Amino acid sequence: MKLPIQRAVSLRQATLPLAAAALALAASVPAGLAGAPAAQADTATPAIVDSTRHDGKYISLTFDDGPDPVTTPKLLAVLEKHHVKATFCLWGDHVKQHPEIVRQIAAAGHLLCNHTMHHDNMGTWSADAIRADLLETSAVIREAVPDAKIDYFRAPYGSWGQTPQVAAELGLQPLGWQLTVSDWEPPGTAELMRRIREGITPGVVVLLHDGGGDRTQTMEAVDQVIPELKSEGWKFDRPARRG
Fold first, then answer.
1. 133: how many CB neighbours lie within 10 A of its CB?
2. Residue 209 a catalytic site member
3. Theoretical Cys-Cys bridge with 123: which of 53, 83, 159, 242, CB 3.0 to 4.6 Å?
4. pTM of the shown model
5. What pLDDT is stored for residue 42 in this prediction?
6. Residue 28: what are its φ and ψ, rounded to 5°?
7. Residues of the chain under the 70 pLDDT cut
8. 94: buried, middle or exposed (CB in 10 Å: 19+, 13-18, 0-12)?
């Protein structure tokens, strides 16, 4: 999720589907998917969470725009080495291209987040159009990982519009962040580490990327900064579940 004010982004002109089309897509969702959001609905609220589950010196790492066939497996190995769990905000088109990597993410015990099907700016979309997209994205994630638990939703570009309410109705907690280090530039591994070290505060959710381009520097920065932060007493947590 790259913030539009920090990098010029050429967005695909989104043609909003008609309400009837959105409802038709929702009606076509398999029964397994239709039942999953209802089971989680009581745990989600429209409030956007941007902090960890615990108070104190805790950090939550989140990664957007994957899965990527090169970076994501390497990042998973780094997180396993350091015994850290993270949240992966999955871009539906990339999930369809690399379902086996989604299975690796889930098998490693990381949290899954719906990051829309095509990474469109939904800031002006209707509720029906948003709902259709989120349902489609969750469906392709569950094609890769049947019965996957999808805890969160994150809006591309931080353009929320009506998405928090729709996501909550589907059992997806809107997930924001407190710290972004602009790793899409990319500025260099040392600079990314500096931005992380200087930007963290107790309970911070950090926005990083494992997809959308060459994220080698992000992976290297994470590998090096985790042991440094652990030595200073920081612990790695999951995002809060409720807003």
1. 25
2. yes
3. 159
4. 0.84
5. 54
6. -85, -5
7. 1-42
8. buried
* Contact indicator for 196, 228 with CB cutoff of 8 Å: no
Kindly report, residue by residue over 176-207, the tens digit of the pLDDT. 999 999 999 999 999 999 999 999 999 999 99
Active-site residue identified among 50, 98, 209, 237: 209
What pLDDT shows up at residue 90? 98
Predicted confidence (pLDDT) per residue in 47-60, tens digit: 999 999 999 999 99
DSSP class of residue 48? P
β-pairing, 204-209 vs 179-180, is parallel
Of 124, 63, 65, the residue nearest 93 (C-alpha) = 65
Per-residue pLDDT, 18? 35
The β-bridge partners of 152 are 113, 173
Per 3-state DSSP, the chain is made up of helix, strand and coil in percentages (nearest 5) of 40, 15, 40
- Residue-wise DSSP of 178-203: SEE--TTS---HHHHHHHHHHH--TT
- To which H or E segment does residue 58 belong? strand 58-66
In sequence order, what are the residues at sequence separation of 6 or more whose Cβ sits closer than 8 angstroms to the Cβ of residue 18? none
Query: What burial class does residue 224 get, using C-beta atoms within 10 Å of its C-beta: 0-12 exposed, 13-18 middle, 19+ buried?
Result: middle
Pick the catalytic residue from 64, 65, 183, 237: 64
